[in-house]
Design goal:
CATH class of chain A: Mainly Alpha
Oligomer: heterodimer
Number of domains of chain A: 1
Order of helices and strands of chain B: HHHH
Largest interface: A-B, 21 and 19 residues
Number of helices of chain B: 4
Radius of gyration of chain B: 20 Å
Strand content of chain A: 5-15%
Structural class of chain B: mainly alpha
Structural class of chain A: mainly alpha
Largest sheet of chain B: none
Largest sheet of chain A: 2 strands, antiparallel
Shape of chain B: flat
CATH topology of chain A: 434 Repressor (Amino-terminal Domain)
Helix content of chain A: 55-70%
């Protein structure tokens, strides 16, 4: 699954550690999600969407 | 300028605390096993009584270590928890296969199982957990 997390985080000028603290996960988990190595669960994906104030489908996109 | 100030990551602080707690109880469990074994080699009092006391203490500390491990696993974020659970499953499978081989070797009288080989199983388990731990930081 592709995502725009890195771009959205950069727009807010947050580091991975900042985003990890907002989401209450480890920094490595933020890194893994950004690189597409780990797909978050639905609750975590909703948490990310709420944090950025965007619909979930504008952040996460299914691989073609 | 940043949209937010950096707030402390309570998750990481909690994970560190739970990890230290687990390491402490695991270490205590190891120490209790070693001390019990030494005490039973040269029992200063009745061996059966000492054995009973040693089992009660070791099981008590073992349960504390188990509870601290459950607390650690429950407190992890979903990615790290997934890695740890995969690591536990892999460790269990390796132990199961190794133990099966040891039993067959024992029955064929090629190699008789002794306490050192049982100790080897715990080293294999430790290596399995350690390999899981490495994956969590990548």
């Amino acid at each position: 699954m592709k995502n725009r997390l890195k771009v959205l985080r950069a727009e807010k000028k947050w580091t991975q550690a900042d985003l990890a603290a907002e989401l209450q996960v480890s920094r490595q988990t933020v890194n893994a999600i950004e690189k597409g190595k780990f797909d978050p669960s639905l609750p975590l994906a909703f948490k990310i969407a709420r944090l950025f104030g965007l619909p979930i489908e504008t952040i996460f996109e299914e691989d073609a | 300028m940043k949209d937010t100030t950096t707030k402390p990551n309570e998750y990481e602080a909690r994970e560190k605390r739970n990890s230290l707690n687990f390491v402490f109880w695991s270490f205590a469990y190891g120490i209790s096993l070693v001390l019990s074994s030494f005490a039973l080699l040269r029992p200063p009092v009745n061996k059966q009584l000492l054995g009973f006391v040693a089992i009660v203490i070791t099981v008590g500390i073992g349960i504390a270590a188990l509870m601290s491990f459950i607390r650690l696993i429950k407190g992890l974020d979903e990615r790290v928890r997934k890695i740890w659970l995969e690591s536990i499953a892999m460790t269990f499978a390796v132990l199961w296969i190794t133990f099966g081989c040891l039993v067959l070797l024992h029955q064929a009288e090629i190699n008789l199982i002794d306490s050192k080989e049982i100790g080897l199983l715990s080293i294999i388990a430790g290596l399995g957990f350690a390999s899981g731990g490495v994956r969590t930081i990548r």
